[in-house]
Amino acid sequence: MVCKLCGPKLSLCGLVLSVWGVIQLTLMGVFYHFKAVALLEDLPLEESATGEEETLESFIANVEHGYMQNALNCWIAALLYFVTLVVSGHQFWMNNRSSVSM
User: Fold this and answer.
1) Alpha carbons 53 and 47: distance in angstroms, whole number
2) pLDDT digits (tens, 9 = 90+) for 8-38
3) Which domain holds residue 74?
4) Residues 45, 65, 20, 22: is their CA dihedral positive or negative?
5) Which residue, 6, 43, 71, 100, has fewest beta-carbon neighbours within 10 Å?
6) Is residue 1 part of a domain?
7) Whole-number mean pLDDT of the chain?
8) 31, exposed or middle or buried, with CB in 10 Å at 0-12, 13-18, 19+?
9) What is residue 1's predicted lDDT score, i.e. its pLDDT?
């Protein structure tokens, strides 16, 4: 049973994009995990709902939570790219196998 979902060019494009996505998002997750200062601007910092002045301890806790949340989000996205890599690799293999066997 041949289960082709896409052609050889699209599967190759999916392979290349997935490899790049896995590498980039894994590295970004590692950098967020180690709290890289360059990524501080990308943190989802929450404002105080009561309008009170934020203490230094609550700000540090908020920043650390933001780093860990972004690291987790990057790793989840890298796993999704890995699933796309597996599907694209399977499709590339199916397309190449069918063209060689004919």
Assistant:
1) 10
2) 899 999 999 999 999 999 999 999 999 999 9
3) 8-43+53-101
4) negative
5) 100
6) no
7) 89
8) middle
9) 52
